[in-house]
Each structure stands twice: as C-alpha cells, then as structure tokens.
Amino acid sequence: MKKKFSIIFTFLISALNPMLVLAQQGTKINRENVVKRHNVSNRAMDTLASLTVGNGTFAYTVDATGMQSFPIYYKNGVSLGTQSEWGWDAFPNTKNYKFEETLQSYDFNNEGRSAKYSVQLKEPARNAGAVNYFRENKHRLQLGNVGLELYLKNGQRATVKDIEGIRQELNLWTGIITSEFRIEGEPIAVKTAAYQGSDRIAVHVVSPLIAQQRLKIFIQYPYPSGKFLDEGTNYDQADNHQTTIINQSSNGAVINHQLQGTSYVTKLNYSQGTLKNKASHYFVYQPASTLGEFDFSFGFAETNNVDKGEYGFTEAAAESTDTWKRFWESGAAVDFAGSTDPRANELERRVVLSQYLTKVQCGGSNPPQETGLTFNSWYGKPHTEMHWWHAVHFALWGRSDMMEKTLDYYFRTFKKARALAERQGYQGVRWIKMSDNDGHESPSSVAAFLVWQQPHIIYMTELAYRDKKSLDVLKKYKNLVFATADFMADFAHYDRVTGRYNIGKGVIPAQEVFKASETLNPTYEVAYWDWALRIAQQWKERLGEPRVAKWDEVIDKLAPLPMKDNCYLATETAPDSYTYDRWMTDHPAVLGALGMVPESAKLNKDVMKNTLDVIWKKWHWEKTWGWDFPMTAMNAARLNLPNKALDALFMNVQTNTYLKNGHNYQDGRLRIYLPGNGGVLTTVAMMLEGWDASTGDLPGFPKDGSWVIKKEGFKKMP
C-alpha cells in the first residue's frame, strides 16, 4: 500500500513540477550528447566565426581553412591570433623613462596625505611620454601566423573568394576542428588539434593539390603594433626584428624570432618536404609531391631546449581527445532538453561554448586579458577587477582547481602590491588593477582609482575554502587575505563629524563614469567592503587567531548604503543617479550589491527591488558591457524574480550578443569579451544550485513547468 501511494504521489508531483521529479530521480546526464549538440559548424568565411584550439595557456585561432590562411581578411573580426601566457615583449626605452614620472600626488580627504597614483599625465611632454611608454610596455605578443598557401591552376595565389564548398566543424567533445573546402573543384581537408602539455598545434592535410605543388604552409611573424588592440597583422617594420632558421632536417626545423625585448623559437615537425625562407619573416614549407597527405606541427617556446618525441597529428588528437573528455566529465553539467521555454536551447549553447572558451583561454596562472589568448586589448594586460568574472565560475562548476591556478598571480605580485599601498601611505596590499603578469603597473587615470578589485581575492579564496573545507587552504592564502583586509580597513576614511568610515573620496567605482575627486560611498563597493571584511574575520577565527580590532571597527561604523526615494543610489554623492542621463550609462553596478555580493545586514531587499525596477526602465542599456546582464540576472534571482533573471540574460542589446563560436560580442573594437562568458556561467550556476540564503531547488528558474532541467555537480554561491 505504501509503495502504491508513493507512485501516485510521485505522479502528482510530476504533473505539477517536472523539474522537481528530475532532481529527485537524479537522472544521469549524457554529457557527450549535451556538449556535441552545440558543435560549431561553418559554411562560409565568416570573420566573426573563427574557431580556437588551445590548452589554457596557449591558443591558436583559425579561419574556415582550419589554419590562419587569411589573417588580413579576418583582421577586424575575431582575429587569427596565436598567443601564449608567457609571450611578452617591450620596445626599447630609448629615452630612459622612469615609472616615477607617471606619478601624481593626491590628498582627496584633506588629511595631509601625499598618495602617489600612476595616471595619464598629458603634460609636460616628458611625463606624457613616460605614461605612453609604460602603458604600451610590456605588451603581449602575437607569436606568429601559420596558414595555408593555396594556388590556382594559373599560378596565382588563391584568395578568400576562391574558397568554395566550406564544411567546417569544431567537435567540442574532442577539441578537434575538421575543415573541408575546394579550390577550382579540387578538395582540401584539414584537421587541427592542440597539444595539451605543450604550446604546439598539429594539422593533418589531405588534398590532390599537394602532388600538384599548389598547397604549401607558411609561417609569418608580425611585429607588435604597440596599440591598444593588436590583431597580429603588422607586417611592416621588418628591420626591427630578425627571424632565422637555426636548425633544419628533412622532417623538421627550428626558427628563432628575435625582437628588441625578447626572443623565442618555433619548432616545426613535418612529413617529407622542405622549408625555405621566402621573404622577410616569411617561411614556407613545401611538402614533397609524392605525398597525398601530410602532418605538420608547430610549437612555440621561450627557449630551444632539446625536444624529443613524436609530434604528428595522431599524438595531438589523442592528447586533445583525452583532455577534453576528462574536462567535460569533471565538474558540473546541465541539460535543458525538454524545456518549452524557447530560450532554453540558446542558454544551453551559451553555457557549453562558454565552458569551452574559458577552458581554452583562461586556464593559466594569471588573470587572463579580456580578449583571452586571441588578440590584444589594453596591450594584452590582464585587469584584476575582471578576475572575478573570469574565474569564479570555475569554482561554482566544481572546478575550483582551475580557479586556484589563476591565483598564483597574487603570490607573484604581492610585493609590488604592497609597494603600491606603501606609496600611497596605506597598510597591507593594494592589488594593481592593470599590469603585466609580473605585476608591473600600467598608468591609467581610471584604473589607478578603482578599488572593487580589492575584495576579489577574498571572495575567490573563500570559494576555494568552501570547496575543500581544509586548513591547508586557509594556511596557503591567509597572508593574501589578511594583507588585503588590512588595506581595505586602512583605505576606509574615518569622518569624525559623522562618526563613520567612508569609501572615498579618491575612488572611481565599478560604474566608471564618476570622478575620483568627487565620489563617496558607491553602493556596490560599500556592500562588498562590508562582506569581505567579515569574511576575513571568519578566516581569523577558523585559524584560531584573534579578530582584528580595526577591521571590526570599520565593519561596525562603515557608512550605510546610500539611498534616496526608496532606491539605492550609485554613490552617496550622486543623488541624481536616476535623473541625470550620464549616471545611467556604463555598468549598473549598484545591482552588484545584491547578486555578486551576498545579502548583508546593511541591505533592504525591498529597496533593492525598487532599485532594480528603476534601473530596468531607465538605464541606457545600449551603453553597457557584457557582464552587466549576468550581474542584473543575479540580482533578480536573489530577489526571487526568476523570470526577470532570464529576461536579463536574454536582453536584446548588442553587448549581450553571443556569436556562433560562443564569444560575447561588444562592438567593432572589442569583438570578443570573455567576462561576458564567465558571467553567464556564474549566473547559471547560481540560478541552478542557489546561494547560501536560498531555499529549494533551482531557485533562479521559473516553477511554471516551462523549464525541464537536469543538473549535476554545482556548488552554491555565497
């Protein structure tokens, strides 16, 4: 009788809420099916549909031929980059600029402080030159273009217009790209795979054009442009760098590329054929005419160490297949099949492709740059305020080790971050907003005054601790956490008149439209400060150490979240937050005070709901960034507004565009933007698994039966 009642009860629950039954049944997800149904296919030379293979610290982006055959044509799309985590260069400092020449002193709160900030000075000319030099240097390198040289019957080189019958697919489950196309009716087939243990790519090429000597492979070395954005196609300035074949045999060669600030080698392995230096910085591999197919692999390395082993396509494909299978079978997964909401398949596509892209481009020991390992933005330098968006999702998707790997940057740059804090008269460490991988600061009149990157390390190390609940984690990161909290407590300025601690003046908030000299207590930063200092005190308690009195004093007396007309303001000094147009552009960061940041005692959810309603209606969404939509969705989810959370994720705005290859498109300048991808993954994990204060399963999704969801392996958000 009990069994019969249980069956009837389960049937009734199923009719009312199919999601709940799926969760109860624990249905195993066929992960391979979920992943492969979002394989990317190309049937044309689409410059915004380039595909990338890589291993997390090295990536190679290809056109529809499976190689970088037409880099100029793709220049203004998703550029055909070859980048590594280690590949950096610097132009000669011929004028002997000193970093100190970029500094300017400020005393924002009239306390007798001489805090030195590295800003974009316009004059005198000497200082302006120093600013430009240290912004441009170091810059990340485009290591080289490797593509197909294809020729027509008349001997002319084939152009994009000559490529016909394109059929290209990226198999996400294996990480292998298969490309088929024709020239004058002759077929060419190329398979492309990335080695996972070294910075090397291998291709397998099949075509009758090989025997006709009409198919070759070129290796071309661009010169760094020194510009904000470098697509890796600057083939001028040939005299400023040197390339030389330093070793050669019948099946391999080594090319050395010498620049003013660095040198590195390209190691080639190939089937029978010859390699010749055809032009300045341009080399061509001619496969033997007796071949109907051949392998060609190329690896980039800082030094020409002895490199033994087989480096054909078979080995690369095996490495790629094994690594990707293990990746997809690890951590979390979600399956939206069977949902009737028309957005379900697109959300699943964004989730799958975002996992692929962030694994390929964000798997190193540093915060990645916002355009990953594809092309430079901001000279290739990582931005620490974006690290949250690049890395938090790894932990929520059950891959905390991938997030932790990126935290190595903070150990490596700790001394420089402490020196920055000391230069401004503060205790602890002030994490540098924009730097190279070694923490060399980049002058910026915005970056110098941002502080919302400061609590990120506390947030991410807290996720690492929650994952393992290990004393070893606390011991490993405690110095980072405590030095961060020391700066945060010291940076908070005590106002004797009001008896409270303020954030500012001297701060540009995450919504970067406000002036540092005028801004006081931005809502998001105050909420984040409060939460992070409380977590730092919990770390003290977990380690059996006494709480820090100064931290408690700041927590107790920290300014309230600024409010007017029952809405939270962007900043206390912007009472016209929702009446002045300029204040309703850029990031609606006030929403991050409940979303990215957990609910705090300072926050009233009714007021935040009013704030969300006003921002939703009045914000200039066309002037936002890719992560603003996930941030808004997280806010709505925590306010128990799941339909609004989904509407935020799918807001019809250009900067919320996700291309065929999965990249988040911003505009003609930033054609890809990885913080948007990370934001989608973080938000979906939160909506699926919930957060510490949430109740029930799938708290971020509507309970109207339109979503059928299977999920595995997610972690709760704080």
So how many helices? 18
Q: In percent terms, what proportion of residues is strand? A: 15-25%
Number of strand elements: 28
Strand arrangement within the widest β-sheet reads 1-10-11-12-13-20-17-16-15
Class per helix and strand makeup = alpha+beta
Q: Characterize the main sheet.
A: 9 strands, antiparallel
Radius of gyration: 27 Å
Uncertain residue ranges: 1-25
Mean pLDDT: 95
- Helix fraction by DSSP (H/I, runs of at least 4): 25-40%
Name the overall outline. globular
Q: What distance lies between the first and last C-alpha atoms, to the nearest angstrom?
A: 43 Å
What do you see in this structure?
With 718 residues, the chain is α+β, with helices and mostly antiparallel strands. A hairpin with a 2-residue loop joins strand 18 and strand 19 (282-287). Residues 1-25 have low confidence and may be disordered. Helix 12 packs across helix 13 and helix 16 packs parallel to helix 18. It has a nine-stranded antiparallel β-sheet with strand order 1-10-11-12-13-20-17-16-15. A four-stranded antiparallel β-sheet has the order 9-14-19-18, with no helix packed on it. It is built from 18 helices and 28 strands.
Task: Annotate the secondary structure layout.
Elements: H1 2-16, H2 18-25, H3 31-36, E1 40-42, E2 51-54, E3 58-62, E4 82-84, E5 88-89, E6 103-106, E7 115-118, H4 125-136, E8 139-140, E9 145-150, E10 164-171, E11 176-183, E12 186-194, E13 200-206, E14 215-220, E15 242-249, E16 252-258, E17 263-270, E18 273-279, E19 282-287, E20 293-301, H5 313-329, E21 333-335, H6 344-361, H7 387-396, H8 400-406, H9 408-412, H10 414-423, H11 456-468, H12 471-491, E22 493-495, E23 500-502, H13 523-542, H14 549-557, E24 563-564, E25 567-568, H15 605-618, H16 628-638, H17 642-649, E26 657-658, E27 664-665, H18 674-689, E28 710-712
Antiparallel strand pairs: 1-10, 2-3, 3-4, 5-8, 6-7, 9-14, 10-11, 11-12, 12-13, 13-20, 14-19, 15-16, 16-17, 17-20, 18-19, 21-28, 22-23, 24-25, 26-27
Helix pairs in contact: 1-2, 6-18, 7-8, 7-11, 7-18, 8-11, 11-12, 12-13, 13-14, 16-17, 16-18
